[in-house]
Amino acid sequence: MPRWRAALRRAAPALGLFAAARLTGLLVMACWAWHIDRPPRRVLARSWDSDWYLLIAEHGYGRTLTWPDGAVQSDLAFFPLYPALVRAVASVLPVTSGSAGLLISWTAAGAAAWGVYAIGERLYGRRTATALVLLWGLLPHSVVLSMAYTEPLLTAFAAWSLYAVLSGRWLWAGTLSALAGLARPNGIAVAAAVCAVAGYTLLKRERRGEWRIWASAALAPVGWCAYVLYVGFRTGDPLGGYFQVQSGWTSRFDFGVGALRAVREIVLRPTMFPLVMTLVIVGASLALFALLVLERPPIALLVYTGVLVLITVGGSGFFESKPRFLLPAFPLLLAPARALTKARPGTAAVLTAALAGLSFAYGTYLLTLSPVAL
Fold first, then answer.
1. Which helix (H) or strand (E) holds 189?
2. pTM for the whole structure
3. Are 243 and 74 in contact, with CB atoms under 8 Å apart?
4. CB of 140 within 8 A of CB of 41?
5. I want to staple 340 with a disulfide (CB 3.0 to 4.6 A). Which of 77, 131, 212, 314 is the partner?
């Protein structure tokens, strides 16, 4: 039996639980959407950023919105891999771009879950790996994994790139990292992890396969750098153009100043429920990152997760979107997954059921009732 097939068979129970969790969440959301006369497919495929991605797939780049305060939002802020895949699938299959986007996202979510399992199994065994995948599929904001969004695609490339690093497959690590960098801005976290481990390995003077390590480090940031430079040349500012485009979306790295302002507003004034949940989720993520550091995981996981957390917490912009930005940071769940496997079966079942209820209810709320974008 091929090694990949044996690995898939080992992962099958975890992937089944993941699929059951996401399908149940979709069913709950769909029933409520039908109840309030909103088509579930449109909710999943054409909400907020999904619409920008699908319009790029259908018409290419070039769309901008100008607001009364003079702010200009350009579709150049959105990385190209996902809309390119949507366009390719829609041109081959008899489906709309929305259906193509969902097909890609659901496939990527499954591939990501398998990659998350593979890492968990390699580090801690099958039970912890299964718990890790289940917890990731039951996060309060995991409904994003079922939408026409790019987080599933990024997580799939990230998980398998990190697995390739852990298993010494350097060329695969660099190639998958380059693809992750074409999927989302925070895909640079994958390149940072690959380059960090490559540098550490070379410093130890490990000569075996040295050229592959150098090639991996060179490949890893290519996708991200290529698109940033493309936007820069297109806007007339090779090095700063992309960041100017992001500023039009109020998205910039300010070392957490903007996030602290948002926290102050949430704490001192009555505010919307999604912002309160965002504060709770980000706070929990910081605590989980501290636990991850104490676990002393492989360098690749630590750097990858650390960069994702740094970008999320240190960036200004849409505070309510921060849980989505953290969705690819699955190593944060390693400590809870290990704890869940050590808990009594009854306790584990109750905790899982409670998390599932929160995930399904909050995901439905985010897509059908929330007054703010994901």
1. helix 188-203
2. 0.96
3. no
4. no
5. 131
